[in-house]
């Protein structure tokens, strides 16, 4: 998959293509429907498929300080899109100047002059241009003028997660924030993932016999509610079953929220300085402060066993 940052990165000889535009944070199952449709349509027409997205998130530029928690960083989104068969990813730097482009100017500068769109595929709530004034109807009218089709993909409705609401990044973020990582995973089509570099912490887990990887998460990451979770720690090309703790460590009067993952039954791991990923499979319990270190140790032992059972059940 080709990756471009900014319109100037698009090859000058780029021909016609099928395009879909959106933030696509999380590349959840609704996004996957749209992107797969774009990829399939491109193959039918014999042209490449292109996903257009933005950095930073448009809301941060339009309303500074309102950047939403992110479900996936751009490199992760790119991996997921490549897995769906996308031919090219265009990340547009979203600046104040860019935010002032009218819908008509956006169509000409991006879709017509640079990507030579033959078809544009979107969801029913797609909005674009200054003050989000452009919608699917306007896009269809522009398509008649500039010779591109517009196809709208209806998003499926989720089942138990969110009580029947449409697939959406907003709903997924809410479920993650509430600790409902299973519900979030249902919408995403995979476990919610948090990434970052392993840094040195207080090393109390090591002293208790359960050494953890303390993950310094990427900015704006959507982090699950405080508690203990079952999941996986991805490091050095390996996915290791893990018991994951999120919170401030109230047992030791901590104040800073951390994400720590214990690779179950692994000994001698040295991950300091490495970029790792943590996948959240299931919620185990909330954060607690125990009466004694012995009580804490028993709880951790029980947590690890429960995590082991949940992971084995998921793999069965």
Write up what this structure looks like:
With 316 residues, the chain is of the alpha/beta class. Helices cover 32% and strands 26% of the residues. It contains 10 helices and 12 strands. Helix 1 links the parallel strand 2 and strand 3. The longest helix has 23 residues.
Shape: elongated
Instruction: Write down the overall mean pLDDT.
Output: 92
Strand content: 25-35%
Sheet of most strands? 6 strands, parallel
Q: Count of helices?
A: 10
Rg (C-alpha, Å) = 22 Å
Order of helices and strands: EEHEHHEHHEHEHHEHEEEEEH
Number of strands: 12
First and last CA, distance: 33 Å
What structural class results from the helix and strand content? alpha/beta
Q: Numbering strands along the chain, what is their spatial order in the largest sheet?
A: 1-4-3-2-5-6
Q: Helical percent range?
A: 25-40%
Spans of at least 5 consecutive residues whose pLDDT stays below 50 are: 158-162
């Amino acid at each position: 998959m080709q990756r471009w940052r900014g319109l100037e990165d698009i090859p000058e000889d780029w021909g016609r293509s099928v395009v879909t535009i959106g933030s696509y944070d999380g590349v959840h199952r609704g996004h996957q429907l749209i992107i797969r449709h774009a990829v399939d349509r491109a193959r039918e027409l014999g042209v490449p498929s292109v996903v257009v997205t933005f950095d930073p998130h448009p809301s941060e530029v339009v309303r500074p300080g309102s950047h939403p928690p992110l479900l996936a960083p751009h490199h992760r989104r790119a991996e997921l899109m490549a897995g769906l068969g996308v031919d090219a990813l265009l990340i547009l730097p979203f600046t104040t100047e860019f935010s002032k482009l009218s819908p008509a100017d956006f169509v000409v500068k991006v879709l017509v002059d640079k990507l030579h769109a033959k078809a544009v595929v979107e969801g029913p709530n797609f909005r674009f241009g200054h003050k989000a004034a452009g919608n699917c109807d306007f896009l269809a009218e522009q398509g008649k003028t500039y010779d591109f089709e517009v196809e709208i993909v209806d998003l499926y409705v989720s089942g138990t997660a969110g009580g029947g609401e449409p697939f959406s990044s907003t709903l997924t973020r809410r479920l993650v924030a509430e600790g409902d990582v299973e519900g979030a995973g249902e919408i995403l089509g995979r476990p919610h993932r948090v990434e970052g570099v392993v840094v040195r912490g207080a090393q109390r887990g090591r002293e208790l016999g359960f050494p953890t990887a303390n993950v310094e998460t990427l900015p704006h990451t959507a982090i699950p509610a405080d508690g203990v979770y079952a999941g996986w720690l991805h490091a050095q090309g390996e996915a290791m079953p893990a018991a994951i703790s999120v919170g401030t460590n109230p047992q030791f009067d901590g104040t800073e929220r951390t994400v720590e993952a214990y690779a179950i039954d692994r000994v001698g791991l040295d991950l300091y300085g490495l970029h790792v990923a943590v996948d959240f499979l299931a919620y185990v319990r909330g954060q607690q402060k125990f009466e004694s270190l012995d009580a804490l140790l028993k709880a951790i032992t029980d947590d690890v066993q429960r995590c082991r059972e949940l992971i084995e059940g998921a793999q069965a």
